[in-house]
Amino acid sequence: MSGTESPVLAVLCGDRRPPDMEPIERAATVRYARADELPDALRGADALFVYDFLSRAVPGAWHAADRLRWLHIASAGVDPVMFPELRDSDVVLTNSRGVFDSAIAEYVLGVVIAFAKDFAGSLRLQQQRAWRHRETERVAGTSALVVGTGPIGRAIARLLGAVGMRVTGAGRRARDGDPDFGRVVASEDLTRHLPDFDVVVAVAPLTEQTRGMFDARAFAAMRPGARFVNVGRGELVVTEDLVSALRGGHLSGAALDVFEQEPLPPESPLWAMENVLVSAHMSGDFVGWRNALVEVFADNFARWCGGRPLRNVVDKRLGYVPSTP
Hints:
alpha/beta; Rossmann fold; 2 domains; 8-stranded mixed beta sheet; 5-stranded parallel beta sheet
């Protein structure tokens, strides 16, 4: 942005306003809005901060965006705002890449170890006051395929590698010598490579190419007894096909933080499966994550006001920020 006029910033925030906004409020006219108020907030606004990153309100309010030049979403995934009118516009889109990398990687490492050491079984036996000796698995020496080679996938690869797992990535382009994965296979060849791994971690962005990529064919291709972890997007998975693979015993377990429908409906069979770990879309939500999201936006806001290049600019054709390892 240039000039001396104070910018107008619309903030989609639901019932919870973002913290630490005082410096931005001193530099801009800030309009906080719930979903139904967003059209009014967008009229004459120069920028939009989608703090309520799960909201689907932006496409329906887009007709009122008569002056918008920049949209920032407080998440790594941009699918809630990736609609044709935005994609075809000159509005710059940025995301909050980098905030959740380490926390999600820790979650993935945690569930991998929890399955291998059967922590859930130990808890059930403890609740029964039952002393039952069992043998558990080693993690070191097992193999993992991380589907998605952006910063979150790379953080996952580093942590899994640190405990002795052999980690491979799956991304747009096959290559060797990657600094974090070593080897990256092409996602378009996913089913050919799935039989080679003990654990498959889904962290790919949601695009038309990745929607439903984990279906009956993909699960059937996985190694018998393999485990599946989804920390990407629920829509990457055809849930019925995953349930069938778990019920049939082809997969030995799944850790799921995201779902096709959220909240996960009470009638979902996933709740009652002893070989499934369910968490409420929280794998990246560490203490202080909301403040961290505002810090990323505030940095970009200062850049935008000063006419400097923005960080985390999304390629709207791809649907994510291109990685350059």
